[in-house]
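Morning run. Coffee first, then this:
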Amino acid sequence: MRIYELFIDHIRLFVQDSLFVDDMHVPVLLKEVLEIFDPEPGEIFVDATINGGGHARAILEKVGPKGKVIGIEWDSELIAFLKSDAALAKAGNLTLIHANYRDIETVIPHEIRGSAKGILFDFGYSSYHIASAGRGFSFSKDEPLDMRYDNHGAGITAKDIINEWPEDSIADLLREYGEERFASRIASRIAAARKTSAITKTFELVRIIEDAVRGPRGRIHPATRTFQALRIRVNDELENIRNGLRGATRALRPGGIIIAISFHSLEDRIVKDFFRKMAQGGNAEIITKKPVTAAREETEQNPRARSAKLRALRIKK
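And here it is:
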């Protein structure tokens, strides 16, 4: 019990003291999400990527005690944090589910399938994962190369990929999921370095990448695309998006809305293509003809919002 209490205290201290702006306090594009969903008392919504609960808290206020929000979260540590929140527990109309959003159709309660007014997907990772998770998501902190959202479960880690995959496979991964133009060079340096000793920490990998990509730094850190590619592959993020969107269409009521917030082109491309095919098949109507982006005021307060793109789809049944 004491270990659990220490963990919760650790999370709370992060939320209160971190220099990062966390989704727990400032959810991305909240105003736009509420305008599109237009939650009313008694309605049901699903936050398929609840994270710290920023969007869910605002929706809960709108739907009131007779409404309900189902919150799905893959990271068991964030589930523990939300369960410890006295305000959420007192509200009594939030149901938390520890699951991957790819399984949304099967994990949400049977009685609400086909009755939700809206389902929200806020893809990617949060500032919590960068600043406090300790799993190697950030190239600015020296941590174990894990990168699993739920590191209490099974599954491949970033360390496994870096140390065990063939050089050509690593290069292909960096090109496909990181859109990294120096993929071959970085993969070659990784393969050479691991012959001496295993690469187990983020700073070890960063030094290898920086050595492979010499010269003046551009707009982003040279390790950015490699870390993105590893995280996407470790968590199978792109296939999860496809499965999650398909499942969401069957969990909504007639006229229900899917909102998807993406943070890089690979995610946004999947959402855009899925929405277009649904509309072309006559099964849905695209609400956002162009992706909605954050206003300058929001990006100044929350830098994470700069790359966010919101798309929305209304299901016809």
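Strands lie at 44-47, 68-73, 94-98, 116-122, 252-262, 284-286, 309-315. Good start to the day.
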